[in-house]
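User: I'm curious what two different proteins look like when written out as structure tokens. Can you demonstrate?

Assistant: Sure. I'll show them one after the other, since each token string lines up with its own sequence. Here's the first protein:
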Amino acid sequence: MPDQTDWEAKAANILKAELKRKGVTYAQLAELIGDKEPNVRNKLSRGKFSAAFFLECIDSLGVAAIRLNN
């Protein structure tokens, strides 16, 4: 399996941070987007997911803006 790129890691970390900030669990996110918790958990742990998945999650969490720089 290929290693996670810096961009994949950044996307996964942004999404994980937003989940934590909103107090939403993987199970709750899965319900919001109509997916199964193991699928969501695996995508986030691998950091391998599409831009569409990322945007769907961010939108479901009600995130209006994303900071790309610290």
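Here's a second, unrelated protein for contrast:
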Amino acid sequence: MRIVVQRVKEAKVTIEDRTVGSIGKGLLLLIGVGQDDTKELTDRYIDKIIKLRIFADEQGKTNLSLQDVGGEVLVVSQFTLYADCKKGNRPSFTSAADPKKANELYEYFLIAIKERLGNVEKGEFGADMQVSLVNDGPFTVILGEELVF
């Protein structure tokens, strides 16, 4: 699983000029699912994301988590995080999970993170989406294979 975590002041997803998800202060999560990903790995990533201390405290130090600041979450599926550009100029996506598996883990991710946080906004799996955001900082963290063991 590959996840781009962006601390935002606001973010939204639109499809054909219709807003399908929007948040204020919180995290925009772009999620790519790989062939070997599992529900157990997904749970570990959710735990890591919820506990990430990337919000500023009163002294301006990044000591606070999403829960500490009452932040919101917008989750967007993005298989292109598995782009392999080593050969040629056209990316290969052979490491990405097939659409059926990717959608199942994306939906599992949404259910599991909602159970922990409550309200979670989302994009639409497989749709042509436009994502807009005001990155806060900017502060962006890329989670990859660090939880695989």
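A detail about the second structure: The radius of gyration is 15 Å.
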